[in-house]
Design a protein that fits this description.
Shape: globular
CATH architecture: Orthogonal Bundle
CATH topology: Preprotein translocase SecY subunit
Number of helices: 17
Distance between the termini: 19 Å
CATH class: Mainly Alpha
CATH superfamily: SecY subunit domain
Number of domains: 1
Strand order of the largest sheet: 6-3-7
Order of helices and strands: HHHHHHHHEEHHHEEEEHHHHEHH
Strand content: 5-15%
Radius of gyration: 24 Å
């Protein structure tokens, strides 16, 4: 392991990317300590610790790296960007103009990215307006969360600071993707969840001391964590190999082709994206509900709270849907079949062209179903365990799933840099290196 780390740091480009990513993490964590003007952060944190742990706001706070409970400029987190990405990708599938842009190469992708940024700003303004209404209505132990002297000025200040904070987070994530290592947006969520672990450990110990839970419950929760980690590794590394044979071609005096290779179809092609997308979408209605005090809307918000039956059904269904949706975006069986036919490749026993496309699509549909259902079960099981055993929800499925999935993807990218320069990978005998 130490030799692998030394080899990793010996590659100038990789070393620069890793240090740049760490520097961005530092900036992100520093920005998480800048408060929104006029908010009593101590009162808000106390309310979260007693009232919101495991609920909707506790769930949102997990993706905001704990910034919502402190009402910092990063209180919205990266969720507005993810929500905007979902909306744009859904529109791309149904709006011909956006679909045409997506097929125009780099220029089209830049336009779509710009639209996503505009959508992020709009959603940030909408969500920050709802949050300031919620903050002004919040009182804990007779003490208001918002300072009484702020008046009407609190609304524009909150909207401007939180929207600017989200825009800055979006820029940080893009910088990591471009100049760092790994997917920037996923790593922003990753570092936020990791930063919450010490606080969750302390809170769990406090619950043990107060009698709200016991060591047996904690042991069961840790066992579930181990099972979740093992399940995530199995899903992320599992793949179905389709054998491909290339016909021999004679060009002049040389013979080309005749080789046998395979197409590795991952069981979970979408990675942790379905979890992130499903979490963002299921929280969006609850964000809208913050604008009104209607009783039936409050009841709906209660049904959509983490751990409720409707929440569990919708969350699992959305995970399965986005697994198929994202897989269809990144992997097109028609393109695979056309490329194989173009270069003289074929699947033994399957005719080239349409039959090959149908064969790949059938296999991809089956393995995606298995992967998406397993993903939904892993995400929901620890949530139920957290409710039963009264342990912080960030110990459970969603957070742990994102942490393990993003860590595996990042390690895989680091290994690809190392293997291109003829260095040994991180896991010499592991399955990550075996994916070459």
């Amino acid at each position: 392991m130490f030799k692998s780390i030394r080899n990793m740091l010996a590659i100038p480009e990789l070393r620069q990317r890793i240090f740049f990513t760490i520097a961005i993490f530092f900036v992100y964590r520093v920005g998480g300590h800048i408060p929104v003007p006029g908010v009593n952060a101590g009162v808000l944190t106390a309310w979260f610790n007693q009232e919101a742990q495991g609920g909707l706001f506790g769930f949102i706070d997990m993706f905001a790296a704990g910034n919502l409970r402190k009402a910092t400029i990063f209180a919205l987190g990266i969720m507005p960007y993810i929500s905007a990405s979902i909306i744009i990708q859904l529109l791309t599938a149904v709006v011909p103009a956006l679909e045409k842009l997506q097929k125009e190469g780099e220029a089209g992708r830049k336009r779509i990215t710009q639209y996503t940024r505009y959508g992020t700003i709009g959603l940030s303004l909408l969500q920050s307006f709802g949050i300031q209404i919620w903050l002004k209505s919040l009182v804990f132990n007779g003490v208001p969360v918002v300072e009484p002297g702020m008046g009407w000025l609190f609304t524009p200040l909150t909207m401007i600071t939180m929207t600017a904070g989200t825009a800055f987070i979006m820029w940080l994530g893009e910088q990591i993707s471009e100049r760092g290592i790994g997917n920037g947006m996923s790593l922003i969520i990753f570092i936020g969840i990791i930063a919450r672990i010490p606080a969750d450990v302390m809170l769990t110990m406090e619950k043990v001391g107060s009698g709200d839970t016991n060591l047996v419950n904690i042991a069961v929760t840790l066992l579930v964590m181990v099972i979740v980690v093992a399940g995530v590794v199995v899903i992320q590394q599992g793949q179905r190999k389709i054998r491909v044979q290339y016909a021999k071609r004679i060009v002049g005096r040389k013979i080309y082709g005749g080789q046998s290779t395979h197409i590795p179809l991952r069981v979970n092609t979408a990675g942790v994206i379905p979890i992130i997308f499903a979490s963002a979408l299921i929280m969006f209605p609850n964000t809208i509900l913050m604008f009104t005090d209607a009783d039936w809307l409050k009841a709906l918000a209660g049904w959509l709270a983490p751990g409720k039956p409707l929440y569990m059904i919708l969350y699992g269904g959305l995970i399965i849907f986005f697994s198929y949706f994202y897989t269809a975006i990144v992997l097109n069986p028609a393109d695979l079949a056309d490329n194989m036919k173009k270069y003289g490749g074929f699947i033994p026993g399957v005719r080239p062209g349409k039959n090959t496309e149908q064969f790949i699509d059938r296999i991809l549909t089956r393995i995606t179903l298995a992967g998406s259902v397993f993903l939904a079960v892993i995400a929901l099981l620890p949530v139920a365990m957290a409710i039963i055993f009264k342990s912080p929800i960030t110990f459970g499925g969603t957070g742990l799933l994102i942490v393990v999935g993003v860590a595996l993807d990042t390690i895989r990218q680091i290994e690809s840099h190392m293997l291109m320069r003829h260095y040994d990978g991180f896991l010499r005998k592991g399955r990550i290196r075996g994916r070459r």
